[in-house]
Amino acid sequence: MQRLSIQGGTPLAGEVRVAGAKNAALPILAAALLTADPVRVSNMPDLNDVRTMVALLKSMGVKAAMSAGAVDLDASSVASPVAGYELVKTMRASILALG
Predict the structure, then answer these.
(1) How far apart are CA 78 and CA 56, in angstroms?
(2) pTM
(3) CA 34, CA 43: separation in Å to the nearest integer?
(4) At what angle do helices 48-59 and 22-31 cross, to 10 degrees?
């Protein structure tokens, strides 16, 4: 892990962009199943596991669209509580869709 050590008496100012992380993104996507309200998640990493989780949610009836680092989800009309094995077997995080 990188570390930045700053010494001196000068106040710091500015912005730091923090990249999205898969281990945070996947549970957040699964949490969209818990509400009937539309959800927009931004700063999503462009990873295969994220695309697979979105496909898994779509297979369950969640309306989902991905665009430029964001995912829009609407689970108000989930058609099936079943997560198909073909998608589930491709990633460990699919356990988040249980229950």
Answers:
(1) 12
(2) 0.77
(3) 21
(4) 10
pLDDT tens digits for range 12-36: 888 888 888 888 999 999 999 999 9
pLDDT along the chain (99 residues), means of 10: 81 84 90 94 92 92 94 91 82 76
- 75: closest CA among 96, 57, 93? 57
> Using CA atoms, how far apart are residues 59 and 86, in angstroms rounded to an integer?
11
Provide the token pair at 12: 């710091």
Distance separating the N- and C-terminal Cα atoms of the chain = 35
DSSP 10: P
Contacts of 44 (CB under 8 A, 6+ apart): 20, 25, 50, 66, 69, 70, 71
Ordered by start, the domain boundaries in the chain are 22-97
Say if CB 16 and CB 80 are below 8 A apart: no
CATH number of 22-97: 3.65.10.10
